[in-house]
Design brief:
- This protein is mainly α.
- 89% of the residues lie in helices and 0% in strands.
- It is built from three helices and no strands.
- The protein starts with a helix and ends with a helix.
């Protein structure tokens, strides 16, 4: 019975530490992935134009 109470007390006292151990790596992975995706989108946008220039040319030709 004493062992059970000791384990239950440890679980309650270490709950905050366990939360940090789980959430910190997840946040780091999320921020890293977010930065990589933004960088990739910028490179793809620079290499493959989105056609805005073509739309502007068509509007100027109509005027």
């Amino acid at each position: 019975m004493m062992k059970f109470l000791a384990i239950a007390a440890c679980v309650l006292f270490l709950q905050g530490c366990i939360h940090k151990i789980v959430t910190v790596p997840v946040k780091v992975a999320y921020k890293t992935t977010k930065g990589v995706v933004k960088g990739t989108a910028a490179v793809v946008g620079a290499v493959i134009p989105d056609g805005d220039d073509d739309d502007n040319k068509d509007k100027k030709d109509q005027d």
